[in-house]
């Protein structure tokens, strides 16, 4: 009696859900995703208005502090007084605003990962870069608010615009371009550090030497030679000098091109690293 060996029929393969690859997402869809994420981040600010305190109060505090504490002595060494120092300080503070606001991007990204928000975004069929770009867009908006308050304080205290309105707009745009580039550094820090406090601590270690070892608060001619060499290569010095030239008159070509060069190089290096880290972060 012959027996027939029955072979089990091959199991039907389960349908595989195809996820959208970032490279296949068109420009229009990418912009739509960025817009939706920007709206989400703005709604977060609306629910937590205290997150705007740094952008609203920092320019007021720094302007009053430096003008009335250091304005007399530094302005006197420049051959003038508080008025001259005010005209010198405000363009420099515009450069500093971008750096301080940029640090909030890193802490925000780190906090979103701790809460699991970023994990949810990574499961969605959206471009990974759109999540980070939306963060930068919102922080640029906060930076513009801080800059407008800073300029308002400057004009209220007697600052005189010695060039044209176009020069002022150019200084704001240059500060925004450099600030956006610096935000990629802090996003990478936020994705690398374990806690938001660590991001803030590391950020301060980077910001303090760059800010005070620059021409933001005082001319560099009286600094030691080694420190003057550092300030010459410090991108914040070039940004402050460029903003000062655009607003108050003077040579601007070298400082503007150096600042733009720094912005392009920082973005070209840090943006791909930040997006790659965002994909792989566990």
Indicate the topology:
Layout: H1 27-47, H2 53-69, H3 71-77, H4 82-114, H5 117-122, H6 128-157, H7 165-192, H8 196-212, H9 225-233, H10 235-248, H11 253-280
Helix pairs in contact: 1-6, 2-4, 2-6, 3-4, 4-6, 4-7, 4-8, 4-10, 6-7, 7-10, 7-11, 10-11
Textual characterization of the structure:
- The protein is built from eleven helices and no strands.
- It has helices at residues 27-47, 53-69, 71-77, 82-114, 117-122, 128-157, 165-192, 196-212, 225-233, 235-248, 253-280.
- Helix 4 (82-114) packs parallel to helix 7.
- The model is unreliable at 1-22 (pLDDT under 50).
What is the helix/strand order? Answer: HHHHHHHHHHH
**Low-confidence spans:** 1-22
How many β strands by DSSP?
0
Mean pLDDT: 83
Tell me about the biggest sheet? Answer: none
Q: What is the radius of gyration computed over CA atoms, rounded to a whole number of angstroms?
A: 24 Å
- Work out the helicity level: over 70%
Overall shape: it is: elongated
How far apart the termini lie comes to 61 Å
Question: What tags apply to this protein structure?
Answer:
282 residues, mainly alpha, disordered N terminus
């Amino acid at each position: 009696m012959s027996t027939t060996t029955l072979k089990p029929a091959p199991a039907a393969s389960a349908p595989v859900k195809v996820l959208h690859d970032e490279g296949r997402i068109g420009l229009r869809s990418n912009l739509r995703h960025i817009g939706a994420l920007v709206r989400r981040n703005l709604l977060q600010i609306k629910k937590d208005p205290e997150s705007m305190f740094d952008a609203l109060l920092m320019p007021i505090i720094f302007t009053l502090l430096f003008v009335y504490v250091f304005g007399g002595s530094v302005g006197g060494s420049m051959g003038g007084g508080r008025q001259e120092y005010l005209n010198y300080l405000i363009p420099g503070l515009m450069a500093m605003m971008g750096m301080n606001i940029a640090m909030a991007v890193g802490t925000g990204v780190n906090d979103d990962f701790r809460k699991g928000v970023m994990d949810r975004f990574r499961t969605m069929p959206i471009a990974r870069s759109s999540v980070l770009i939306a963060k930068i867009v919102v922080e640029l908006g906060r930076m513009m608010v801080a800059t407008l308050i800073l300029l308002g304080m400057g004009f209220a205290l007697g600052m005189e615009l010695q060039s044209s309105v176009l020069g002022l707009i150019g200084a704001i745009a240059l500060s925004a371009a450099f600030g956006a580039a610096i935000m990629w550094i802090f996003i990478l820090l936020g994705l690398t550090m374990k806690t938001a406090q660590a991001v803030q601590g590391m950020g301060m270690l980077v910001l303090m030497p760059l800010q005070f070892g620059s021409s933001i608060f005082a001319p560099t001619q009286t600094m030691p030679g080694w420190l003057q060499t550092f300030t010459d290569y410090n991108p914040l010095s070039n940004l402050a000098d460029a903003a000062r030239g655009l607003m108050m008159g003077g040579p601007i070509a070298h400082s503007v091109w150096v600042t733009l060069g720094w912005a392009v190089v920082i973005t070209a290096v840090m943006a791909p690293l930040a997006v790659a880290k965002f994909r792989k972060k566990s």
